[in-house]
Amino acid sequence: MSDTAARTMRLLTLLQRRRYWPGPELAHRLEVSLRTLRRDIERLRALGYSVGSDRGVDGGYQLESASGLAPLLVDSDEAVALAVGLNLAAQGSPELAEASVGALSKVLALLPPDQRRRAETVRDATSMGLGPASAGPALDVLATVAAACRDQVRVSFDYRAATGAASERYVEPYGLVAIGSRYYLFSYDIDRADWRTFRLDRMQQPRPARTPYTPRPLPTDDVRQYVRTSQRGAQARYRVVLEVACPGDALRGAYGRWVDVDDLGPGRCAVTMDTDDFTWPLHILANTDAEFTVIEPVELREHIAAVADRFAAAG
User: Which of 267, 263, 256, 181 lies closest to 225 in space, CA to CA?
Assistant: First the structure.
């Protein structure tokens, strides 16, 4: 957020805390001149907030009641980020998708006209399809576990592993990691006396304790990478390894959230991923203008050959 936007956000917060602010006191709290304060007040008004003022050097300001809802106070880049983030969330479970679509509609309605048009353009021009729709967690599970992480309280829950085995777990939750549309809990398992990760969509009935725990030293400085490493190959049907004739940075920026990209030398890299089907590898290869070699698995080579035959026949 820019300094101006951050200061305007702080100004709005101050106006909401007190019924009336003398101008000099408000400028002192914001560490700006009276002239800058007046410009910030005008910016709030341009965004749709009704701010009353008294004339004169010692005049003051107050946030007046207004009909309807005032626009969100965000800059243009943040407006786009909101649209992209909610659009990505809409690719999750049906419950999360429905809530995200509703939230996106309401957020867009609260944006000023120029920012709304920009965000709507990004939303309408973007087509997502990066993960299985059934992998998202239930919203009540996500909210409960996130609150337990925030409050640092232990949580128990019913869990069903990939093998179908059911168990009851009791853990100290330390954080959530989102990989694609799947959410993982990074935690210390009390009964097993070891660090564990759990998929939230396999959890049921999380039950937080009332008293906080004393945090333990973490086993890693990078929780996200720790979870990715611990889950690698554990749930997926295939391990895919590709060699691509392009610099690693060309793929890392676009796909680094979902795959591992390692440099093999100038203009060549290796792409590694764990997946249940070949939709995602084909997406990357089809949208990368470079020669490639499938190192593994054999099934992917056969699948690419079958797809190539269909395209050749159609052409």
Answer: 256
pLDDT of the residue at 64: 77
Whether residue 137 lies inside any domain: the answer is no
* Residue 130: per-residue pLDDT: 44
Phi then psi for residue 186, to 5 deg, are: -95, 120
Domain containing 37 equals 3-63
Rounded Cα gap, residues 157 and 181, in angstroms: 21
The Cα–Cα gap between 124 and 108 comes to: 12
Structural domain total, the chain: 4
Q: Is residue 253 part of a domain?
A: yes
Nearest Cα neighbor of 184 from 153, 133, 237, 141 is 141
pTM passes above 0.85: no
Q: Average pLDDT across each block of 10 residues of the chain; the chain has 315 residues. List them in order.
A: 70 80 90 90 81 78 64 65 67 63 68 72 57 61 89 94 86 86 87 91 92 92 81 69 92 80 90 84 90 93 90 81
Question: How far is it, in rounded angstroms, from Cα 180 to Cα 190?
Answer: 28
In this structure, is residue 138 part of a structural domain?
Answer: no
Q: Is 222 helix (H, G, I), strand (E, B) or coil?
A: coil
Strands (E), 109-213: 153-160, 166-179, 182-189, 194-199, 203-212
Distances (CA, A) of 272 to 34, 100, 176, 197, 266: 57, 30, 23, 21, 18
What integer pLDDT is reported at residue 218 of this predicted model?
A: 92
